[in-house]
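Researcher: Can you fold this with adenosine-5'-diphosphate in place?
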Amino acid sequence: MMETKLRVSASISLKLSNVHKHFGSETRRVEVLHDISFDMAAGQTLAITGPSGSGKSTLLHLIGTLDQPSAGSIEINGQTPFSLPEPELAKFRNQVVGFVFQDHHLLPQYSVLENVLIPTLAFKNKNGNPEKRARELLERVGLAHRLDHRPAELSGGERQRVAIARALINRPSLLLCDEPTGDLDRSTANTVASLLFELHREAQNILIAVTHSLELASRFGKRFELVEGTCVEVGINLKQNKPNA
Ligand code: ADP
Ligand code: MG
């Protein structure tokens, strides 16, 4: 049964069923993802590893509703977002998904505070005061004293902390990170990752990160490696859900 209305306040969940993705035409087809199925619930964390070109970003984009699977289905919070008409899909993505990219994607001409507020501009949220929440989040990531600074005035680690605050501003169910610490030195990467886990734990959302770093991946509850387009579960991580693990 197709759903066409945006439902609110469903509980947090993610379900991929037999997801395939290819690019290109019949003759120049690039098969990227093949028959991927898994489920996640509120509070869980997943790292996706794999060599460059294995389809990690493609998978993250599908989960974040930025691109559609070629076959199979993706359910988020019990809803099938790709059955929504485009304006409602954009609203769904804005409300349900928070992204953190390797290259922070902050807007250079805006201040730290304005950057964090940007996702609140497109769709009005009835609940709360966005500026108050933005200030609180920036305090939480240790940047309360940098509200009026431009991204160029910040270090790499500080920019990623702004990007995390921005990703969380609309209280997303899914916090999706593509190489979130890829440009940072090891010690800064560890600090930023710890912050990400802390905020995830407080929000009890679903945290998924794509990473080259096995050190970062080992901190996640569940780990998938992309092998020939499909997800293979790696090891069992006993550190799952322990604070500061
Ligand atoms: P990763 O993030 O693991 O490095 P990607 O998901 O970016 O890998 O890419 C996986 C494969 O899909 C690569 O072969 C890439 O060239 C191809 N690909 C990604 N996006 C597109 C696109 N829009 N059109 C055609 N091919 C694409
Ligand atoms: Mg990538």
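Model: Folded with adenosine-5'-diphosphate in place. Residues 56-57 surround magnesium ion (ligand 2) (CB under 6 Å).
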